[in-house]
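Q: what does this look like with nicotinamide-adenine-dinucleotide bound?
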Amino acid sequence: MKANYINGLWREGQTTTADINPSDLSDKIDDFAVAEAQDVADAVAAAREAQPGWAGLTPQVRADILETVGREIVERKQELGDLLAREEGKTLAEGIGEVNRAGQIFKYFAGEALRCEGGLIDSIRPGVAVEVTRQAVGVVGAITPWNFPSAIPAWKIAPALAFGNAVVLKPAEWAPASAWALVEICSRTDMPAGVLNLVMGPGRESGAALVANPDLDAMSFTGSQATGAAIAKTCLENHTKFQLEMGGKNPLVIVDDADLDQAVQVAVNGAYFSSGQRCTASSRLIVTEGIHDRFVGKLKAALAGLVVGDARDPQTHIGPVIDGSQLERIMAYIERGRREGADLVFGGDRVKAATEGHYVAPTLFCNTDNSMVINREEIFGPVATVQCVKNYEEALAVANDSEFGLSAGICTTSLKFANHFKRHAQAGMIMVNLPTAGVDYHVPFGGIKHSSFGHREQGREAIGFYTSVKTTYVGG
Ligand code: NAD
């Protein structure tokens, strides 16, 4: 059994959840301890006790520890990437890429620990100086989803620790092994006991207990909209600072003047890689009528060349989806699309592989319109829709007609369209001739509208959430 990590000690649970390989349901990775309410309370109390000492160390100490963690993650990216692919169903290359990114995030925030800057400003009053400084928020809870089980815990833990906070991490119950490995690496550094704690288990129990803890100063959440809304409510009641990163229904606009081969590549990558289980997936392909038929023809041909299979087989392009319930949900959306009158032009079925797993064929609907449920709700699987529109102006209007606003892309060779889209697409991240998914680790990440709430994550923006600003007036 893999135990929870509380106050520097590994604590087994009375019950466990099993981490199952979605590519091969006969392969159990391990059992993971479920944190009871008392475990969560102990973890928060340990973090509270440890936090002032951690914040009081010099930033060099914190930087060195984060650097050590980042280095080990990068050195072990092959092994940890394999574990990630095994528990989550991403291809091996994607798993290794994600682990490498997690390591780089730690290394990046090692540097940021040393750049926690403030300011000195002349007062409007004579003989008074004004200092603006930043200090740690305190005890931070982090709740993370299963679809980036290494990178998302890293992009919350690393900045929180860099700026002197203590952390209680609750990873997703469907893929806890990658987060456990990350915490295990941290546990072997000089980080004092209680600074980083791990509590695992179901969201409604272990997660809810963490959010409800009144001694939490801040909560950083990534996951679905419904969970985000529930967490926001509790945080408001408790006066806990919070940030939410949630779903997307990301448009990719393909204009008549796009480079056709590039557009197809961008769409395949954005919509189908990682089995479409990315908040930034290009799930709505909005195509102007002059290129529509050629684009759909080439896209179908490209989909026919994709191999669906075991995530760790190097031949595989599309691994399984995470879980049986997720698979059922995706199949229900496919059925819904059919009933709504969309043309199913590719896929739509489960796929049989050498082992029993949660495999779905890459699926494409054409002749859809933006009012259909398959164009409004996040499916979170290898399913994309095409909407044919008259021109760029209509494409932009359709792209923006969504409650979500995480990422938006355009394929065009025209500077005019690209520039206009950059300014007017309603999303936190804009991609020109690139998939809507796939981002750098050292720049801000996040959306607008119902996709996100609160401070941006990652890059230099991360400091906004993990510190609070203090303004000090000094008289003579
Ligand atoms: P989810 O909301 O079901 O679960 C996310 C986390 O919240 C898990 O750790 C879960 O255990 C926990 N949780 C669930 N209910 C809870 C509760 N009542 N109280 C406290 N914690 C609770 O989401 P998921 O299915 O794991 O992830 C998929 C979703 O995440 C998609 O909607 C996707 O778009 C989104 N996502 C967003 C981003 C982003 O940065 N915008 C990144 C990745 C995934």
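The chain is about 40% helix and 20% strand. The mean pLDDT is 98.
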